[in-house]
Amino acid sequence: MIPIHYSAEVRAAKDAGHPIVALESTIITHGMPYPQNVEVAAQVEQDIREEGAVPATMAVIEGKLHVGLEPEQLQWLGQAQGVAKISRADMAACISTGGTGATTVAATRIAAHYAGIEVFATGGIGGVHQGAETTFDISADLHELGHTPVTVVAAGAKAILDLAKTLEVLETLGVPVIAHGQDEFPAFWSAKSPFAAPLRMDSADAIAKAHSTRRALGLPGGQLVANPIPAADQIPAEELAPIIAEAQSDADAHRITGKAVTPYLLQRIFEKTEGRSLVANIALVRNNARLAAKIAQALVKQR
Ligand code: PSU
Ligand code: MN
User: Rg for the chain (alpha carbons), in Å?
Assistant: First the structure.
C-alpha cells in the first residue's frame, strides 16, 4: 500500500467516523491566481466545517499523497511553481518519482476513494471539449465518474465545454447526473442551460440515499450532483457565450492542446470578463462545498 499523509484534522475525523468532504487542488494551482487561490481554498474549507463536516484537500507533495493539507502546506502549494496537474494517467508516476502535483477531479476521486472518503466538492467537472469530434479531447474526469464510487458536487460542467456531448458521455458511462433543486443541468457560471438533467433531487438526504443504494447494488462509479450557482452570483449565459467563443478561437489559434486547454480557457475568460468569472467561480465552489458537507453528514446519519 502507498502510505497516506493525513492532516491532523482529517485523521481525527476518520478515527471518530465524522463526515469528511474531499476537495481538489488543481483549482488552487491552475484555476485561480495567487493569493485569491489560497484565500478561497481556506474559505471553502471553513464553509465545510461550518456545515458540520471536515475538509480534505488532496495533493501530491514531493511524492507523498496528502489527504487534508495543513494551513502552511496550502499556503505553500498556492505559490509553488511548476506544480503538475495530475489526473488518473499521471498520479502513480507523480508519486513514484517524488513529484509534486495538484489533483484534478479524476485524481481527487481516486485519492478520496483510497482514503475511504465518499463525498467530494469542486467547481465544475471536466468534460467533452468543443471540437472533440476532431480533437478527441474528452476529460478523464468523465471516465473516473464511471469508475470510482464517490459522489461529486459540481455546478455542472464548465460552460466552455460541449454540454450536450458531455451529458451523452455521462449517460454512456452510466453516471447518474442529478440536478439539485431544479430540472435543468446547470452551466457553471449560469444556473440554467438549455439541457434537462436526467435526474433531479431536492435534498441532501435523497442524494445520500441514492449514493448508498448504488453501492448496495454493487455498481461501480459515482454520482454527479449538479448544483446550480446561486442566482445572485451568476453571469447570464447569453453574455458569456461570445466570450467563451472568443476564448476558444484564441485557444485554437495558439494550438493549445492537452492539459493546457482548460486552464488556458479559464484564464482568457477571466481576462475578458475583467475578473467577474472568478467572482462567480468562488461563489459556486462555496455553494457546492456546503451541499457536499450536508450529503456527507446525511451519509453518516443513515449508516
Ligand atoms: N474548475 C475550475 N478550474 C479548474 C478545474 C476545474 O474552475 O482548473 C480543473 C479541475 O481540476 C478539472 C480539470 O478536473 O480542470 C479538468 O481538466 P481537463 O479538462 O484537462 O481534464
Ligand atoms: Mn483534455
Answer: 18
Q: Which amino acid, residue 143? A: H
Residue 130 CB less than 6 A away from ligand 1? no
The residues pairing with 23 across neighbouring beta strands, listed in sequence order, are: 57, 121
- Residue 35: asked if its preceding bond is cis (omega within 30°), the reply is yes
Ordered per-residue pLDDT tens for the chain, 303 residues: 999 999 999 999 999 999 999 999 999 999 898 999 999 999 999 999 999 999 999 999 999 999 999 999 999 999 999 999 999 999 999 999 999 999 999 999 999 999 999 999 999 999 999 999 999 999 999 999 999 999 999 999 888 999 999 999 999 999 999 999 999 999 999 999 999 999 999 999 999 999 999 999 999 999 999 999 999 999 998 999 999 999 999 999 999 999 999 999 999 999 999 999 999 999 999 999 999 999 999 999 998
Q: Per the residue annotation, which of 9, 14, 24, 85 is the catalytic one?
A: 24
Give CA–CA dist 219/144, Å, rounded: 14
Residue 5's φ and ψ, nearest 5 degrees, are -100, 100
Other beta carbons less than 10 A from residue 129's beta carbon: 22
Is the pTM higher than 0.70? yes
Distance in angstroms (rounded) separating the CA atoms of residues 140 and 227:
21
Write out the three cell numbers for 182: 431544479
Distance 127 CA to ligand 1 centre (A): 9
Q: Which atom of ligand 1 is nearest to the CA of 261?
A: 20
Cβ neighbour number for residue 233 with a 10 Å cutoff: 17
Cell (9 digits) for 232: 445572485
Single-letter amino acid code for the residue at 283: A
